[in-house]
Write a structure and sequence with these properties.
The structure is a homotetramer of 274-residue chains. Chain A has 274 residues and is an alpha+beta fold. Chain A folds into 2 domains: 2-104, D-amino Acid Aminotransferase, Chain A, domain 1, CATH 3.30.470.10; 112-269, D-amino Acid Aminotransferase, subunit A, domain 2 (D-amino Acid Aminotransferase, Chain A, domain 2). Helices cover 29% and strands 30% of the residues of chain A. Chain A contains 8 helices and 16 strands. Chain A has helices spanning 20-24, 42-56, 64-75, 112-115, 142-150, 195-206, 218-223, 254-269; strands at residues 2-5, 8-10, 14-16, 27-35, 38-39, 82-89, 97-104, 117-121, 156-160, 166-169, 173-178, 181-185, 211-214, 226-231, 235-242, 245-246. In chain A, strands 8, 9, 10, 11, 12, 13, 14, 15 and 16 form a 9-stranded mixed beta sheet that branches. In chain A, a hairpin with a 2-residue loop joins strand 4 and strand 5. In chain A, helix 6 (195-206) crosses helix 8. The longest helix of chain A is centred in the C-terminal third of the chain and has 16 residues, at 254-269. The mean pLDDT of chain A is 94. The interface between A and B is large, with 47 and 47 residues.
Chain lengths: 274, 274, 274, 274
């Protein structure tokens, strides 16, 4: 909808074809969102952006207040919630390029929370952290595009890591329920420490639910009683089917619903997210 | 120096900030060069570009003759040899974006062929083909930038693959000499099948030198008698030192020199490269 | 039932506690069986034994005819089919120790061919060939004992390899059927090239069934229409259930039955197995 | 020299050929030694034996005092130091088999402490803990025999782990010195937590030496200033040469000698080892 570049908000904009973000994928980003017009978890996203910047050797010229103030300026007076993509490229190699995109919220239709989504398992594996740190959110996303292309019929594609343990989706984290316990791949599984993932773990614990962060085997995806995804733009998304295995027949239930029902109240009441 | 975009050659040019090559690294490329003004190995580079395009699901709108004719147009009347970067991004997702950059040849000073270069070993490993096919030349190059940043003092950084076998440099292939045999990592080592790599293998065999393409252990880098790199823009580059181990004291010799001395004659006489 | 050692058949026997097969697991073996009193695939087992012996540096003192003649002597006049374990240890380090055990056939009850068996997936992974060649049948089997201990409720436990692809069971090879195609892990999956595995592949092809030997993903075990195991002592064993997923409700059918029905005729008519 | 089996000390002894330790390598062991006739680190070895027994599902019928009292009985009145191998096999599957071997100390000639030893790098990799826990000392040692066979000219062969990081020798742990820091592979490198390894780490720290337990890259073996091995029977063994790279020309020096000179005093004064 609009984009901030070189100190200005514009309807559209261009960059030099010599920008190293364009030629070599030398860029980092974060995707934030608003809830009822308010920016969600800005501090947490800023910390991740800073960590990515350090890994890529990009100077962080704006401090937290400066960056957030630009974003607040961009989202004021909007009539619906949005996705905000903050992106920094190495530019011409001397001066980094900061862009802020205000975009339509990439949230699923509300139907999806009732019908759930179908997911597949990628034949490509998640890039190991020893090759590209999984904590680095880079714009070098060709491998995500490849994975999505391969199984277009699914809402989301789940990556296994190099050793064949469950990692994460192309745009979401994965949770499953086994015998009343909430299970999700640990950070050692070569995943990104998603902010909504962390919210769900904390929320579950606050509700007295037992949570395991550990290596998750593929067969657990096919033998669990519930399966759901988390992503910033969409919260908790129930999974109806994984490959040819149906997880639930009618409507999602159990912990998936318990956590979904409590999700917004929980984040709205946690000061650290605002 | 100049760039071809949207059907025109320009001094400088821009792309939309919404180009998916800029936002998500969804692009592919090839780097060609000229020798005495003539385009080297255009057919081989075109075949690789087509393979990359298929992997990324990019339509190849130009056939071989059309593409080469544009490049020929761009390099005519130049007074020195150049590097040509052909790059295709997914653009806005509907129409791919073709760019051709004519750039200064990234060749080492001629001194380097006598003094050799120093190389290090990356602490980051080459991305396995099961994650991102090593035959795909994508613009999603953040991992290369990370690796180069880490060991800035070296001319080149050599990647090991996930299993710890020698793979390739950030911009070159690796060869070593052991007991008179030329050894280089096999394609199964998660490497790109570099065109100059193939030239050197063929040239060596034509000279009666025994060549092994196989998994190469790290200790072989420290126990070999010769070590050199190959890359399109520079041909054969002798390695003087790897980490703290000196490979040669005075001047490069042996197969390194034999192959270098015969390199240009060999390629000029092979019709398939022109 | 009886054992051949030091040139003699005995009811029972002992070895020195200093035998390196006992102290260090330095031994190799093959398990053969009889059908109607006739030795099955002796030539194929001998070739594998010889390959194992070479890998372990054990001299093969007996040629094919000598070894088979001893075995024939041991199995003559038996009133039911048996398993024959041929085992060679490094002995005292100078003189290897040859043992031949004649043992009760480790075949499942005939009921199992109708009811099928339940299998689990091991949490331990198959040892990679780069650590211990999967073509080497060694007596160093502690990892098999560990895997069986872990999931005692199942008839068989399936190993994944280091990268998380399906490998093989602790005592069997694995086949599945997908869209009418017979699929089994390729030899590159760190498996043993089981003799019954090879029989089933050849038999299937002779019946016009399409066969794929390739990397098999874990999710395929949960999404296939048929699943069965092969092992020398038992032939083809249908799998009813894998972990909590039921593969068939009533009786095995499809290719499992087609192959089982043709199995004995096929091997009895193939001269190379006798 | 003598062996304890079935409650008795004997010159020589035998086991049934049906012992599962012989047929399937189902056994565990520990190697202890004496210093001046006194048993070194018995408590530590007992704890490791118990851990191995639990992993293999072997009942530990003897408590610490009972086992040590048998060993003390076996080593009394010996005129030189010995190696004691305590070994438990699953026996006939019902009753485990306990054996205690008193054997000549497998220590290098004292010359070796001055001249050092030559070591090679195995082409076989250490079995990953996800396949066979590296904390389990099993008698299933075929892979060690294979590795030693491959490079017979060296005193010791160093394994890399599956990912190509330095792991350990076939019978020793590995240390190196870089810029005055003592570096050794961490337990996450798929190594055994050797008792002498732990002694050396503790001793170094007590001397104010900086110690790093971490993933160690192969190239560090070729770029370090000192390299040594540790093993129970031999203490600290300097390495003169690794593959074709010479580590020291004349005599070992530096931390290798500092640690060696203080080794015996240190262990004799640590009550926990006696």
């Amino acid at each position: 909808m609009k984009v901030y570049i070189n100190g200005e908000w514009k309807e559209d904009a261009v960059v030099s074809v010599y920008d190293r973000g364009f030629m070599y994928g030398e860029g980092i980003y974060e995707s934030l969102r608003t809830y009822n017009g308010r920016l969600f978890a800005p501090r947490q996203h800023y910390e991740r952006l800073k960590r990515s910047a350090q890994l890529m050797g990009l100077p962080c010229k704006l401090n937290y207040d400066e960056l957030i103030s630009i974003i607040q300026d961009g989202i004021k007076n909007l009539d619906k919630d949005v996705t905000i993509r903050v992106m920094v490229t190495t530019g011409n190699g001397k001066e980094p390029n900061l862009l802020i995109y205000i975009m339509e919220l990439q949230a699923p239709h509300s139907d999806l929370y009732i019908y759930g989504v179908d997911v597949g398992i990628s034949r490509l594996r998640k890039i190991p952290s020893i090759c590209l740190p999984s904590t680095l959110k880079t714009t070098s996303h060709a491998y995500l595009s490849l994975a999505r292309r391969e199984k277009g019929e699914f809402y989301e594609i789940i990556f296994l890591n190099y050793q064949g343990f469950v990692a994460e989706g192309t745009m979401s984290n994965v949770f499953l329920v086994e015998n009343g316990t909430l299970v999700t791949p640990s950070l050692e599984s070569d995943i990104l420490d998603g902010i909504t993932r962390r919210v769900v773990i904390d929320l579950a614990r606050s509700l007295g639910i037992s949570v395991e962060e550990r290596f998750v085997n593929v067969d657990e995806l096919f033998n669990c009683s519930e399966l759901f995804l988390t992503r910033t733009s969409a919260g908790i998304i129930p999974v109806r089917r994984i490959e040819s295995r149906t997880i639930f027949e009618n409507e999602p239930s159990g912990l998936t619903i318990l956590l979904s029902d409590n999700f917004k109240d929980y984040i709205f009441n946690e000061e650290k997210y605002w």
